Amino acid sequence: MQFNSSLTQLERLPLTTDLTPEPTPDDGGIDREALEAPVAKQSVGTLTAGEGTNGQRANSVSLQKSEELRQTMLAHRQERQILILQDFPDPDALSSAWAYQLIAQQYDIKCEIIYAGTLSHQENIALVKLTGLPAQRCPLQNLKSKDLSSYQGFVLIDNQGTTSQLVPVLEQAGIPLVAVIDHHSLQGNLKSEFVDIRPDVRATATIFTQYLQTGLLPLDSTINQHVKCATALMHGLRSDTNLLMQAKEEDFLAAAYLSRFYDVQLLNAILQANRSKRVMDVIERSLKNRIVQNNFSIAGVGYLRYDDRDAIPQAADFLVTEENVHTAVVYGIVHDEDDELEVVIGSLRTTKLTLDPDEFIKEAFGQDSSGRFFGGGRTSAGGFEIPMGFLSGGNENSAYAKMKWEVFDAQIKQKLLRLVNPRDNPIQSE
Questions:
Q1: pLDDT at 197 over 50
Q2: CATH number of the domain located at residue range(s) 277-420 in this protein
Q3: 63, 41 in Cβ contact below 8 A?
């Protein structure tokens, strides 16, 4: 496989590979002295990231944050934590949460990985099914009715709480925020014991791979769970760097390390998952409804079932490939009939190097009354979620549902086109 062979070449980049001591037979085979030793002294495959100043700085940050996380883990031994992913988690979030869970197990910390939404992207479904990745859906109402008294903390992985409807419930229950680990731009002030937010890194999976390299959890190719987690991390890193085309030096080094452990055939099986007919229908709708101005393609796709939410970013991925288009925005109203929940969800994809998705989305849609932005992004991609509040529901009346969509469609286009065509008034009065 060409992808794997290129990673094999990457392994020639400088890495230090100090051997870890053999685990003692006591305490379940876990070397307690190694766990309590500073990270730098028990590092395995610690990346040196080149000889330049940037590489040295990146390596220094990685070692520092790994040590801080180790200290945090030690302070929370034998506790129970909830790992919160964004409502619709991607491979980067899923794989990183799994890596956190495996690291935490070394410190007798039990973790549950949950998300409020659903897995609808075919690759995400395949990732969870084929690897046995231990993530579970937990709708908002389920968490509200759950006894949270047994949890001593919660952790945000690949998000900062702005894309999960579960966070307010945990905050209201008085569950403290133990850690935030993310690669997106800072979304606001975070009161967390441990914070590792690195927007310059292209994937949260890269950050977690660095944790593994510094010795928080030395991977072992003879342990099936380690191989599957490494495969998941490779998929997460690969997807968030656009097949490594937007990867930076740290991402390449992380991929080189993972190439020693991941299962090529398993990753290939995940990547070959087919699109569903419903996803193809949404892509078709985006093609019919798109408007193209100043190399921006903007498309509203109407109402979608909650389970089909991931069709929106896939449609944006498709539209941005059109000739003379450098940025695509696709959005729709996603509704969950069971929870009577409706929210406007959109995705942005761009190939324009000078366009910052995070700045663009924040400028277009602003903040809610509590100061939280409705969306944000990273290099080449972004997303937004706008609650519909009082206007949710009532769709059994087709005329009302149509009118509601037309209003939201017009409002979103107006906000986007003010940035695309700042001199024009996109909506003309009669």
A1: yes
A2: 3.10.310.30
A3: no
19-28, 47-56, 227-236, 420-429: which has the highest mean pLDDT?
227-236
Task: Tell how strand 341-350 and strand 381-387 pair up.
Answer: antiparallel
Q: Round to whole Å and give the CA distance between 82 and 84.
A: 6
The one-letter amino acid code at 217 reads: L
Res 13 pLDDT > 50: no
Q: Which amino acid is at 365?
A: F
Name the more confident of 184 and 19.
Answer: 184
CB 178 within 8 Å of CB 154: yes
pTM: predicted TM-score of the whole model, two decimal places: 0.68
Structure tokens at 208: 């977690």
**Alpha-carbon gap, residue 282 to 289, rounded angstroms:** 10
Residues 304 and 387: their CA atoms lie apart, in Å, by: 15
Radius of gyration of the chain (CA): 22
CATH 3.30.70.560 describes domain 2-271: no
pLDDT band with cut points at 50, 70 and 90 for residue 5: very low
Name the one residue in this structure whose structure tokens are 């998300």. 115
Query: Per-residue pLDDT for 154 more than 90?
Result: yes
For the chain, which residues make up each domain, given as ranges? Answer: 2-271, 277-420
| Residue 241 or residue 379, greater confidence | 241
Bridge-based pairing state of the strands 327-336 and 291-293 = unpaired
The candidate with the shortest Cα–Cα distance to 271, out of 127, 55, 67, is: 127
In this structure, the number of other CB atoms found within 10 A of the CB of residue 75 comes to: 12
Sheet holding 291-293, edge to edge: 291-293, 296-305, 327-336, 341-350, 381-387, 375-378
Of 345, 304, 274, the closest CA to residue 87 belongs to 345
